[in-house]
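re: ur question from yesterday

yeah so i grabbed the chain u mentioned. its 340 aa long if i counted rite. heres the sequnce exactly as i have it in my notes:
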Amino acid sequence: MSPGAPIVALEGVRARDSAGEAGRSRGGLVGVALALGPGVHAVLGAPEDGTLALAELLAGRAAPLAGRVLVAGREPFRSAATRARIGVLSVAPELPDGASVASSMSVALRARGAPPSSAAALLEPLGVAPLLARRTASLSFAEARSVELSLALGVPQPLLLCLFEPFADVAVPSTELVRGRLRALADGGACVVLITSSTVDAKAVADRIHVLDRGVIARTEPGDGERLAGAPIPVAPGAGGPEVELHVLIHERGPDAPGARALAAALAVSPAVRAGSWEQGPAGASSTLRIRAADREAAALAILDAAAREDVTLAAIWSPTPSMHDVRAATALHLAAVRP
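ran it thru and got these structure tokens back, copy pasting raw so excuse formatting
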């Protein structure tokens, strides 16, 4: 692999999974082109969008119907040496045969040329070392996935980590342990691909978020997720770029004290705010103000300044995490805007 070349490259890839009933397909890829380097990449979508097909291709368990899938310049489906440097967490756990977790892991470690005694060292970073003494058949679905995740994260000299929903149905004491390990591997030069339908999980760890929509990579956004549900085109004359949304929780001190209404009026003349709306909470004790703006930090400062001027008591300011419904709606607008 030449310096600067992507670790993972998909070139005009067409594929379908076989995850449905009787081997029928649930989704597929249609002419996907994608290049991924070191770092954490989240592919956001559902099985119907082609996430299962993508996972099978990257793991080297299937070949594309058309196009090429390359990992470090080689096709993983045809190269056992390449597959040996890919860590995989599948939809369902696929642990090697073994009566106990220790024996099952020993099979996997011997295949890597590693001593079986290193099994505990793979489980300990995720806090699941006690599983080593368990019978494999006694593991729950989530426990078996946690063992498989430990094996995936312990691949020697990893080129690629292909992880399907590593924060769901995984029995680890804290997801922070998983996030920390993913970050360390990415910082060490690996390409970490997190395939998920959770916008929360994508935002929590990714450097870049690639939206997979009905078989195509429709958008690539920064990992902070601020633009996932943003408008792709100006929303008003002279207002360029995507929008972000902020929610403000306001403590209503009393009927005569300034509150959400006063804050909304003050922000209506602020150049940092494009639009806003508010609603009163239960029993009138609090209100929520929703603000749309071009810049999150500038809007947050405008809110703080206006609250201080109007003597409004703020309880919290936060950016809501968009749902998959929000992302799909924004993606449809994005595609409509870029099509000729």
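noticed a couple things. Residues 8-222 form a domain with the Rossmann fold fold (CATH 3.40.50.300). also The chain has two domains: 8-222, 244-318.
anyway ttyl
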